[in-house]
Amino acid sequence: MPKSLIIVESPGKVKTIGKFLGRDFTVRASVGHVRDLPEKELAVDIENKFKPKYVAIKNKQKVLKQIRDAAEKVDNILLATDPDREGEAICWHLAHELKRLKKPINRITFNEITKTAVQNAIKHPGEIDQDLVDAQQARRVLDRLVGYQISPILGRAVRWGLSAGRVQSVAVRLICEREAEVEVFVPEEYWSIIAKLKGEDSKPFEAKLLRISKKKAKVENEEQAKTIVKESGAEQFVVEKIDRKERKRNPVPPFITSKLQQEAARKLRFTAKKTMTVAQQLYEGVTIGNEGDVGLITYMRTDSTRVANEALDSVRGLIAERYGSDYLPAKAIHYRSKKGAQDAHEAVRPTLVENSPESIKQFLTKDQLALYGLIWRRFVASQMKPAILDVTAVDIKAGKYTFRANGSIIKFKGFMSVYMEGKDDSTDEDKETILPELTEGQALQLLGITPNQHFTQPPPRYSEATLVKILEENGIGRPSTYASIISTIQARDYVRKEKGRFVPTDVGKLVNTLLVKSFPRILDAEFTAKMEADLDAVEDGKTKWVKVLEEFYEPFSKSLKNAPEIIKAAKKDLEEVTDEICEECGKNMVIKWGKFGRFLSCSGYPECKNTKELNHKEESAEEPDATEEVCDKCGSPMVTKIGRYGKFLACSAYPECKNTKQIGKENVPDEATDEICEKCGKPMVIKTGRYGRFLACSDYPTCKTARPLSTGIDCPEPDCDGYIAERRGKRGVFYGCSNYPDCKYVLWGKPVAKKCPKCGAPFLVQKTSKAKGDYLACADKECGYSEGAKK
Length: 791
Fold this sequence. Notes:
Elements: E1 4-8, H1 11-18, E2 25-29, E3 35-36, E4 44-45, E5 51-52, E6 55-56, H2 61-71, E7 76-79, H3 85-98, E8 105-107, H4 115-123, H5 130-157, H6 168-184, E9 189-198, E10 205-212, E11 215-216, H7 222-233, E12 237-249, H8 257-268, H9 272-284, E13 286-287, E14 293-294, H10 309-322, H11 357-360, H12 366-382, E15 387-398, E16 401-412, E17 443-455, H13 464-473, H14 482-491, E18 495-498, E19 501-504, H15 506-518, H16 525-539, H17 545-574, E20 576-581, E21 588-594, E22 597-602, E23 611-613, H18 614-620, E24 625-630, E25 637-643, E26 646-651, E27 660-662, E28 671-676, E29 683-689, E30 692-697, E31 706-714, E32 723-729, E33 732-737, E34 746-747, E35 751-752, E36 764-769, E37 773-778, E38 786-787
Parallel strand pairs: 1-2, 1-7, 7-8
Antiparallel strand pairs: 3-6, 4-5, 9-10, 9-17, 10-11, 10-16, 12-15, 12-17, 13-14, 15-16, 18-19, 20-21, 21-22, 22-23, 24-25, 25-26, 26-27, 28-29, 29-30, 30-31, 31-32, 32-33, 33-34, 35-36, 36-37, 37-38
């Protein structure tokens, strides 16, 4: 009979860990959390020191029974969930569920899933760290207090289904503030003057105007540019000064979570969520030939650059063998972690550096290989010698004008032979040029001078990489939360991506404005960072979690009381009076916010209740493009309009005739995504066809890979691994399983990722009716649960 039960979080670890151990061990998975706050109530006793009410998660009853049954057959229980706050909390909940068995329960942790690490952890069992549990408990209660008390206010003020999050809302604010900077930005004209020069027996090179009469050159218009071109072109170009410096470029540290997400976004075009999903697979184990399941990387949620001495010895040996002693520093390099880092785990690195990407390529998927290669190369490069570059700056005189040419030559590649870190928002100036051999006083031949017009650019919108970077720099969230923050704000339709950059939606802007005015403290980045620091203090045992909540809740409760009136006033301030006149009463129409976004409403409301679609008004501001096509319903000419999915044909007799038609798909622009084609590796784009939107390879028609557009919700049918996708039929948009026709699950309302509080169904469905208005209903018709309907 087995003597010990080991409980891990993920089923993926069960097989990997099981093969390291003998018959005396049974391995089971909790599949994440087993207890949580119930969804249908606040479940926090504010008056009783914020005591949380935990219940067993309904769909985990079967898992818990399997764990209890296994626990009854062993002598002791070892809790081996992930080595972080959340993992510690899961241990605590598991211990609560298993304590009635009255068997020894201990905690074990390991940073990598290797035989040595697992066996060593079993030899040194410990106790559950209550400080870690309390830190996670404080975070969970904080998020529940904010989400469950602010979201209903937003629902009543704007529309049902909107929600607020303590950390996610701050991320939305950052995106909205950057968008505001973009919107008010006024571009300024400027010109650059580029001279193409050539020395005797040398290749041509370019130099840029630097100074005019010892003052920094500032060319503001075309007239100035032409004058400079004419005057400098008449002068002799002579090398005035050559400045050569030897510069070292040091390697970068091995990955921490945030840097891994940033670099995967830059180089692999992975979203933060995809990066963490693939990293989890590499951590839990991949089948490598006869070796079986092997954990390929260390734990991927970390803010430390620390590396174990054994790993340092291994990578130094590999560098000496593969690249030579010239690339190996005299001593191992130890990197200092950023201020405030928890340093609980090592950096993200290969468990065995001998497993090079090339040697295990055949056992990995394309995404796994790409991410593993990134991690492996970064780790190896981090222990190599610096690169050495000769950097040259050449000043060239042409009368009163001074031009400068910059260039560099790599004398010793060092770590750059293995890895180079990507850059955000790189420009042409970042490119390095190799200059010919020149001497001071040398006359140069002018091949041509080119004036180039430029305009200053607004600050760039955030990409996945730069958003993670700004969150990290501001102390918002922690390594384990960045991916979920980014996924959540997109799922809630507060932001969307345009050409790989985050842009706030109208709803996102509205919610941000209302929250900033009514909950300025909650939406303050510095306050959010302080809360993270307070949670770190709880983890370190420096303060109590209840004290943190008490300090937070007193001012928060006051904001809650005042919020409805503040939001009401803020919405009034956002109303825009237009020049359009109400055809029913003659008063001006105003732009208001409703359940479906902005619309036109008569300023005489409630006496006059006339409303209009805002899109119709905005389109009528400019004459729609007329076409030769005739409406097949009323005979009026059809015109081109722009809607949610691009251009379409609409009857010019609207609103009397509401007939519309799709324009050929060549007129509908493709929408970029972060998805990668599984066949050719090129980006996937969203296209619009006769049956609605779908994902297709950007390399079409060379690659014809296509798949339905996912809603992000798995198909609920048993034994089906598909997902619910958006489709279009004769009756309009509907939602069905991606595995159709093998699976024929279908919905006529959009699924919403929210569990049914009555029966535990994994999602609710958006519904609308004249009697109830807009509301959410359980996907299981027999359940009958609904919320948000008119009373």
